[in-house]
Design a protein that fits this description.
- The complex is a heterodimer of chains A (189) and B (572).
- Chain A is an all-alpha fold and 189 residues long.
- Chain A has seven helices and no strands.
- The longest helix of chain A has 32 residues.
- The mean pLDDT of chain A is 94.
- With 572 residues, chain B is mostly helical.
- Chain B has a single domain, classed as Up-down Bundle (Cytochrome C Oxidase, Chain A), CATH 1.20.210.10.
- Classes of the chains: A mainly alpha (189), B mainly alpha (572).
- Chains A and B meet through helix 1, helix 2 and helix 6 of A and helix 1, helix 7, helix 8 and helix 9 of B.
């Protein structure tokens, strides 16, 4: 039996959705603090542009496209869940997870390439921020994909369909963080 | 979420201890009941307070009687002294003030006061405590690992904290950062629960301005915490990387900057003061209105005031860095914002006084603690004005004046506020009434020594004594002028104060053994937690008789009513 508290909605918004938004608020300040620190340093160190020039903008752009597409499938999953089609929602969620896997695979290749060319996290300030920020983001991608797998498993059996939207909101956030990371770490030379 | 079903159906009338009855302690440990989790936080917090208090005893003894072996500890080495001071600060703020005021009372009070059966996410609530428990083990482990506990002050400024060739505690300092980071995660999980429970689970009829102030305060504090801790979490990751894999975020040699940590730390650190202050101020409001039998003066103004305080608290952080080489023009701006934030806090003090004015005041133990909070915190606030002004702060920085100032804020918050809350809600939490006579002895023997500890430290600080010195007798000019005797007075007062806590312990044991049960509403208060049994059963109320709210929580001495109180759930 669910506690009475969990089923109440004095604000008119479902409790789970409220909670996800508050989680995102706390995440925004985590990434906000990291990126604000990076931007302040970057302004004070024009020479970091040399290090930034090593990063591969085309691969980064490809990954941006992969992540944006995975957000599209997350929305389609939500749409299917709204109509009560759990099987279809699960299918779209698995496609989103596939997008996350591609993203992480490409990321692994990039890091392997950069590290094997001697650009490690201790090389200089730019690389320290590059690996920390992208690593923290990748950690969120992994966490989101794992949670999504559980949501998809339930959705395929027609259970807890409202969670499809919640994980979708989270996934958009992961996406938006990358939209900030990509220009800051790849494009700005 | 499966197990409550049994308790809800038959546990209500017969068994007060439905949730920690015969199932054994493991079941108790795994409970999702908000009251059990509150107790877990409370007792962990009290246990850590004993450790933090013991640390204070050891280093105060070293300062008063340098070089002498401290009973129960032995001779204090300089490294140990630094580790004790560092971890005293860390533990008292992150493992005492936060778990007790925010987590224990937040968990206990929010569902009861908004008329819900539990938090909205009971399992996340349990996870919050479990993460907190792990963080407690990590911070305790950091004290005993090879090399000793972290000794770079609770603010952990790099390069001292970032490089083990400077701090000599490679394991201790990393475990310290990990412990603090885990603790933050625990409170983020708890905070989301607090906020959404208030937003969504209020009893039918309870509008936003019918919520007791203490719930508002705890929730606003949770929001402040959530919006300020993120940058420091990011900063903690950077610090761990600097410590363990040799990045240079805080190292100028590789393009980093140690001042970055100060910004990230204090961007969190200053709102953190209000994170623990607001719950204590809310507790005081509940107690003052109950024992003055008077309606709270300006309910809505209080809400707007705390929101204003919260917003302003994000723009004052650099007043901790006036001598860190920040631009003097920036220092001016932060002086102005810092002085501004004393306006809403002063406003709250006036609201207390206006509420008390003309009330029929009962000086019970909780009321004494509440009034002491106002008086003592006022001293902390007023001395803060000196430190907020950049000109004066440059002289006072890192002296005992600063130390005395923030103990005059944190002691009222973490100790006086906690005892106020504990003595007030003790009958509801444990179902027994504390002994008033012992309670008053405990009160006076805590408050008087407290002032005798820290007033001499103000004088020492104004004499220019720097905080972080292990043995003042090494410096003849710092040991003269009666300075040493002031340190001895402070230390002896501390011993009296620590000893007085045994009165409270004895009071608790005596009360626990007594057969006298507390009534539902011993103080004749209005808010919803007093309408259920003491202690409340699992689920708080019978599921068919959940409370419905008709009015705000401060309707005392309403003209034309026979009773001088008017519970929130009574239709007429």
């Amino acid at each position: 039996m669910r506690p009475i508290a969990t089923t109440r909605a004095a604000t008119g918004t479902e409790t789970g959705k409220l909670a996800v938004w508050w989680v995102l608020a706390s995440e925004v300040v985590i990434f906000g603090g990291l990126l604000a620190s990076y931007v302040m340093f970057r302004l004070g160190h024009p020479e970091w542009a040399d290090a930034a020039a090593v990063t591969n903008t085309y691969i980064g752009a490809f990954n941006t496209w992969v992540l944006l597409t995975s957000s599209l499938t997350a929305v389609l999953a939500h749409q299917a869940a709204e109509r009560g089609d759990g099987k279809k929602a699960a299918r779209f969620l698995y496609m989103t997870i596939f997008g996350a896997a591609v993203f992480l695979g490409v990321k692994t290749y990039e890091w392997w390439y950069e590290i094997s060319h001697g650009y490690t996290i201790t090389s200089n300030g730019f690389w320290a921020f590059y690996y920390t920020a992208a690593g923290l983001h990748a950690f969120h991608v992994i966490a989101g994909a794992v949670i999504m797998a559980f949501v998809a498993r339930d959705a395929a059996r027609g259970r807890e369909l409202h969670r499809v939207e919640l994980i979708g909101i989270y996934w958009h956030f992961v996406d938006i963080v990358w939209i900030f990371l990509f220009p800051l770490l790849y494009i700005a030379k | 979420m499966v197990e409550p079903a049994v308790d809800l159906t038959h546990g209500h009338a017969h068994d007060d201890h439905a949730d920690h009855g015969p199932q054994g302690w493991l079941k108790y440990l795994w409970s999702t009941d908000h009251k059990v989790i509150a107790m877990q936080y409370l007792f962990t917090g009290i246990f850590m307070a004993l450790i933090g208090g013991f640390m204070a005893y050891v280093f105060r003894m070293q300062l008063a009687f340098p070089g002498m072996p401290v009973p129960g500890f032995g001779i204090v080495s300089p490294g140990e002294y630094n580790a004790l001071v560092t971890n005293h600060g860390t533990i008292m703020i992150f493992w005492v003030a936060m778990p007790v005021l925010l987590a224990a009372f937040g968990n206990f009070l929010i569902p009861l006061m908004v008329g819900a059966d539990d938090m909205v996410f009971p399992k996340i609530n349990r996870l919050s405590f479990q993460v907190f428990f792990v963080s407690t083990i990590v911070i305790l482990a950091s004290l005993v690992v090879e090399g000793g506990g972290f000794a770079g002050a609770w603010t952990a400024y790099p390069p001292l904290s970032a490089d083990s060739t400077y701090n000599l505690t490679p394991l201790g300092s990393t475990l310290w950062v990990i412990g603090v980071g885990l603790e933050f995660v625990a409170f983020l999980l708890g905070g989301i629960n607090f906020i959404t429970t208030l937003m969504n689970s209020r009893a039918p009829g309870m509008r936003a301005f019918d919520v007791p102030i203490v719930v508002w305060m705890i929730v606003v504090a949770s929001i402040l915490f959530m919006l300020s801790v993120g940058p420091l979490l990011a900063g903690a990751i950077m610090l761990i990387f600097d410590q363990t894999i040799g990045t240079g975020f805080y190292n100028p040699a590789t393009g980093g900057d140690p001042i970055l940590w100060q910004h990230l730390f204090w961007f969190f650190g200053h709102p953190e003061v209000y994170v623990v202050l607001l719950p204590a101020m809310g507790v005081v409001i509940e107690i003052i209105t109950t024992f003055a039998r008077k309606k709270l003066f300006a309910y809505r103004t209080v809400i707007f005031t705390i929101v204003a305080t919260g917003v302003l608290s994000f723009f004052v952080w650099a007043h901790h860095q006036f001598i860190a080489g920040i631009d003097p023009r920036m220092a001016n701006i932060f002086t102005v914002t810092t002085l501004l934030i004393s306006v809403p806090i002063a406003e709250l003090c006036f609201i207390y006084i206006a509420t008390l004015y003309g009330g029929s005041i009962t000086l019970s133990t909780p009321m004494l603690w509440a009034l002491a909070f106002v008086a003592e915190f006022l001293i902390g606030g007023v001395t803060g004005i000196f430190l907020g002004a950049a000109g004066a702060d440059i002289y006072f920085h890192d002296t005992y004046f600063v130390l005395a100032h923030f103990h005059y804020t944190f002691f009222p918050i973490a100790i006086i506020g906690t005892f106020a809350a504990l003595t007030y809600w003790f009958p509801k939490m444990f179902g027994k009434l504390l002994d008033e006579r012992l309670g008053k002895w405990h009160f006076w023997l805590t408050i008087i020594p407290f002032n005798m500890i820290f007033i001499p430290l103000f004088v020492l600080g104004m004499g220019g004594q720097h905080r972080r010195i292990y043995n003042y007798t090494h410096f003849p000019e710092l040991a003269g002028d009666g300075f040493q005797s002031m340190r001895i007075i402070a230390t002896l007062s501390l011993l009296v104060m620590l000893g007085a806590q045994f009165i409270f312990l004895y009071n608790c044991i005596k009360t626990a053994r007594s057969k006298r049960k507390a009534p539902r509403n011993p103080w004749k208060a209005n808010s919803l937690e007093w309408t259920t049994e003491s202690p409340p059963p699992h689920g708080n109320w019978h599921p068919d008789r959940m409370p419905v709210v008709y009015r705000g929580p401060y309707e005392y001495s309403v003209p034309g009513r026979e009773d001088d109180y008017w519970p929130q759930n009574e239709p007429k």
